[in-house]
Amino acid sequence: MRFRFFVLAFMSLLSMAVGAQNTSSQVVKIGIAAPLTGFSASNGKDVENAARLAFEEANAQGLVIGGKKIVFDIDAQDDAADPKTAVLIAQRFVDEGVSGVIGHYNSGCSVAASAVYRRAGIVQISPTSSSPSYTAQGFETTFRTISNDDQMASLAAKYSVETLGAKRIAVIDDSTDYGTNLVTEYVKLIQKQGAQMVSWQYTTPSSIDFRALLTTIKGLNPDLILYVGQDIQAAGLAKRIRQLGIRAKFMGEGGFTNEHFLPLAGQGAKGMLSWEYGLPRDRMPRAAELDAKLKARFGVGIVQFAPLAYDAAWAMINAMKAAESTDPNQYLGSLKTRSFDGVTGPIAFTSTGDLRDASATLYEEANGKWNVLAVERTVGK
């Protein structure tokens, strides 16, 4: 009996040891890259906060993958919206052995860094990089949770010509990869629909004086002015357009419906139109819930792109769970084939890594508020 007791005790201890080994903790490093300083800092921090929240929630759940308790360790880096800095940060993440990257924010940064991630086999999901060139490279490691610029340009061009009836259109871009690519596609499409591009002007993300370019545009008497770029520059443009007495409609694309734009633009924003990526916040299935969580955790709710960043992070987490692995080579397949209901709606990717069910919303300023005029959807393959 004593021998049997010792055998049972030994087997029990052995079972406990095996169980403990199977659920031992594994630290999984995740990189987040965005501009945390400079003109886009508020949106960059918005992305970081939302992605960080998602991984913290996964940690709180006691997530077990491949028999091990997973603890996500986040490294958030400031790429300063600079492609050269983005490449350096990408190499840092590779050297750290991250299992995935949420970012970058700017298209130019994502495109520059994507080759580094591809060579290392690291999954990159950008919540905000909309340039078609990002996924057109054919890298199997690149994904995004935002519509691409071709989709947005198509919607904006159709509305400009068919609904607004604009015949003479002036365009302005901020000389970034994002701005130039979207305007290029927009111009092609309006011209196909019979409208005339009367002026194409350029500015930069740091410009503050727009008198010269707008004086040129005023002399051409356009029906519509389209600007693609940063919200701070758009606010300055809106003010100057009204000061110069330009009567054309002003349409922007670049995240202008955030809480900062209207106070910056003042009366210049009156009647302005703004195309934005994604659904209106009140039509996102769980945006209010996310906003409350962000306020409780960081003291700041959704600024602009937090829902897209949160969904990007959970897309990565869910793929790891499905594959029972945090190795990008293992969970990459699950990321390509699985879908889930995110804060912004259904999250699934096309064969190129684009968002399968993409949407865009047109807003119009009225009495100091943004009102929804139209919501458009495109479904990819």
- CATH topology of the largest domain, which one? Rossmann fold
Instruction: Report the average pLDDT across residues.
Output: 91
Order of strands, widest sheet: 8-7-9-10-11-14-15
User: Radius of gyration over alpha carbons?
Assistant: 24 Å
Structural class: alpha/beta
Instruction: List the helices and strands in order.
Output: HEHEEHEHEHEHEHEHEHEHEHHHEEEE
What is the rounded distance between the termini? Answer: 68 Å
How would you summarize the topology of this molecule?
Blueprint: H1 2-22, E1 25-34, H2 41-60, E2 64-65, E3 68-78, H3 83-96, E4 101-102, H4 107-120, E5 124-126, H5 132-136, E6 142-144, H6 149-163, E7 168-173, H7 177-192, E8 196-202, H8 211-218, E9 224-228, H9 231-243, E10 249-253, H10 261-265, E11 273-277, H11 287-298, H12 306-323, H13 328-337, E12 340-341, E13 346-347, E14 357-366, E15 369-379
Explain the overall architecture.
It is a single chain. The protein has 381 residues and is of the alpha/beta class. The chain is built from 13 helices and 15 strands. 45% of the residues lie in helices and 22% in strands. The strands form three sheets. The chain has a seven-stranded mixed sheet, with helices on both faces. α3 (83-96) packs parallel to α4, α6 crosses α7 and α12 crosses α13 (328-337). The N and C termini lie far apart (68 Å).
